[in-house]
Amino acid sequence: MKPSILIVDDDRLVSDFMAETFAGSPYEVETADSGDAAAEKIAHRDYDLIFSDVKMPGLNGIELLKRIKKVSPETVVIMMTAFGTVRNAVEAMKSGAYEYLLKPFGPDEATLAAERALEHHRLVRENRLLRHAVAEKYSFARLVGKSAPMRRVYSLIESVADSRATVLITGESGTGKELVAKATHYHGGRKDGPFVALNCAALPETLIESELFGHEKGAFTNAVRQKRGHFEIADGGTLLLDEISEMPAGLQAKLLRVLQEREIQRLGSESKLPIDVRVIATSNRHLPTEIEAGNFREDLYYRLNVIPIHLPPLRERPEDIPALVEHFIARFNAENNRSAKQVSDKVLRLFEHYIWPGNVRELENYIERAVVVAKSDTLTPDDFPAELFTGGVRRQTETIRSGSTIRDMERSLILKTLEDQGGNQTKAADLLGISTRTLRNKLYEYGVKEAKPAEEQLTVDG
Question: The whole model's pTM is what?
Answer without folding.
Answer: 0.60
